[in-house]
């Protein structure tokens, strides 16, 4: 198991229930691949550096994750097609 940091920018127009649903869906994908979510840190609403899908703001969330490296491709594929996620970045924690 390797440790990763996953930062997601979620669509700003989602209410709290839909936002939590999107985050729970991402957590579910991590759990399905044999990983675990160690910590969730909600950074709140922030202004984007440039417009993404006609949005100037986004809701940021940081997830500290432990998962096998083979599960990374599947997680990225799921994130790419999940509509509420505007952008994401996964980095390996040394």
Descriptive report:
The protein is α+β, with helices and mostly antiparallel strands and 94 residues long. 29% of the residues lie in helices and 50% in strands. It has a single domain (2-57, 70-92), classed as Ribosomal protein S6/Translation elongation factor EF1B (Alpha-Beta Plaits, 2-Layer Sandwich). The chain has two helices and four strands. The protein has a four-stranded antiparallel β-sheet, covered by helices on one side.
Q: Topology, pairings included?
A:
Elements: E1 2-10, H1 16-32, E2 36-52, E3 55-67, H2 72-81, E4 85-92
Antiparallel strand pairs: 1-3, 1-4, 2-3
**What is the CATH topology descriptor?**
Alpha-Beta Plaits
Tally the beta strands: 4
Determine and state the CATH class.
Alpha Beta
Major β-sheet strand ordering: 2-3-1-4
State the distance separating the first and last CA atoms.
Answer: 12 Å
Structural category: alpha+beta
- Total domain units: 1
The CATH fourth-level homologous superfamily:
Ribosomal protein S6/Translation elongation factor EF1B
Report the uncertain regions: none
CATH architecture: 2-Layer Sandwich
Question: What letter string, H or E per element, gives the SSE order?
Answer: EHEEHE
Largest sheet: 4 strands, antiparallel
Shape: globular
Mean pLDDT: 95
Portion of residues in beta strands equals over 45%
- How many helices in DSSP terms? 2
Helix content: 25-40%
Task: Specify Rg, calculated over alpha carbons.
Answer: 13 Å
């Amino acid at each position: 198991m390797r440790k990763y940091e996953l930062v997601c920018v979620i669509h700003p127009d989602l209410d709290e229930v839909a936002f939590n649903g999107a985050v729970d869906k991402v957590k579910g994908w991590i759990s399905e691949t044999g990983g675990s979510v160690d910590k969730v840190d909600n950074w709140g609403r922030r202004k984007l550096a440039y417009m993404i899908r006609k949005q100037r703001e986004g809701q940021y969330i940081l997830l500290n994750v432990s998962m096998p490296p083979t599960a990374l491709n599947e997680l990225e594929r799921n994130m790419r097609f999940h509509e509420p996620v505007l952008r994401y970045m996964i980095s390996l924690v040394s």
